[in-house]
Design brief:
Helix 7 (159-167) packs across helix 10. The protein has one domain (4-358). Helices cover 62% and strands 4% of the residues. The protein is mostly helical and 360 residues long.
Length: 360
């Protein structure tokens, strides 16, 4: 199989890691989550249970109220993924491995599969960010062309117009299509096979899918009615999809980020001229890091630079790491990019799609 080689020296990351480690030692702080994350977990899951109970068993008489609650439930789903599942899957929720696995399993409750996600996200995306054929997170082909290394179709010149509508379908496509394609195709990405799953992994995959369909489709359909369930479920899924897709795209698919072309064949390699840590900064951008409300809701994923450099450190520590990373970047002359607001980041993303859609 193809391999990726980072050719640069590693002085930058050594200096950065030393300062980050010193911060935690000097302040006697654990790198994992603390009471802030645990309290947020209780709030988010309590909200999910409450919304589900109201919508299914005490359905509001007003249609607009039900649709509003379904939309809020979509926000809640995304927030659980950003805050709880994400830290758990990266092993940064707690220093207890079993608790990390339990929190990561929140993805299975929401219809996904943790085993496949860890391979495509923790391994491929975090190691080979924005490298074509390895980073599955930039593969939205053929509907959206995110960089000029991907094949161009005539409709891409309109992608900055229809992208947000398409993003609303990504969550449903993920749980009902993409997971199954990877499962049966035994492939995480173009150049990455899916590692052999144990019997437990196979059983977990199917049990989780059946559980999700039963709880969020069958039971609401039987209690509320099938037409009402379909409308509510699609509303929830659309909101979840838009939030998940947009938060990712604002970090990696905007103006002036680096994209690496795919190796010419499965036996050729992709060489990256910089060290791994510098590559992460060249392919990642922060946004709205001063907004406390967005920091809370997005689980620190607006601090994507810090997350990519230190994925095993909980997001509750990212505001402080942000200062350290900026200092070391200035010291080594590394270009650190950050959008002041989420609106500015969205504009950059749409402008990037417009330019790529027209480019040769």
């Amino acid at each position: 199989m193809s391999k990726v080689r980072f050719m640069g020296k590693v002085e930058f990351f050594h200096a950065l890691r030393e300062k980050v480690d010193s911060y935690f030692v000097e302040n006697n702080i654990k790198k994992t989550g603390d009471y802030r994350l645990y309290l947020k977990t209780i709030i988010l899951f309590s909200t999910l249970i409450s919304l589900y109970t109201i919508l299914v068993f005490f359905t509001p008489a007003q249609v607009w109220v039900s649709l509003l609650l379904c939309g809020i439930m979509g926000v809640n789903f995304a927030a659980i993924g950003f805050n709880v599942m994400h830290d758990g899957a990266h092993g940064s929720y707690s220093d207890n491995t079993r608790l990390n696995d339990l929190m990561g399993f929140a993805l299975n409750i929401m219809g996904g599969n943790m085993y496949i996600w860890k391979l495509k996200h923790n391994v491929n995306h975090h190691t080979y960010t924005n490298i074509e054929g390895f980073d599955d997170d930039i593969d939205i082909r053929p509907f959206i062309r995110v960089n000029t290394n991907q094949k161009k179709y005539f409709f891409h010149k309109f992608q900055h117009i229809y992208s947000m509508l398409l993003y609303g379908l990504t969550y449903l496509a993920w749980i009902f299509q993409n997971d199954f394609q990877k499962y049966f195709g035994s492939r995480v990405a173009d150049h990455t096979p899916l590692k052999a799953m144990t019997t437990k992994d196979h059983l977990t995959f199917w049990f989780s899918k059946v559980f999700y369909v039963s709880v969020f489709i069958v039971i609401p359909g039987l209690v509320v009615g099938w037409p009402e369930m379909i409308i509510g479920f699609l509303t929830m899924g659309f909101v979840t999809g838009v939030l998940i897709a947009v938060v990712f795209q604002l970090a990696h698919v905007v103006e002036d980020v680096t994209f690496i072309p795919s190796p010419e064949s499965e036996k050729s390699d992709a060489d990256v001229a910089t060290e791994w840590a510098v590559h992460q900064i060249n392919t990642t951008v922060n946004f709205a890091t001063k907004s406390k409300s967005l920091n809370w809701l997005l689980g620190g994923l607006n601090f994507q630079v810090e997350h990519h450099l230190f994925p095993r450190i909980s997001h509750v520590h990212y505001p402080q790491l942000n200062k350290i990373v900026k200092e070391v970047c200035a010291e080594f002359g590394v270009n650190y990019r950050e959008f002041p607001t989420m609106v500015r980041a969205v504009r950059s993303h749409l402008e990037h799609l417009k330019l790529v859609g027209k480019a040769a």
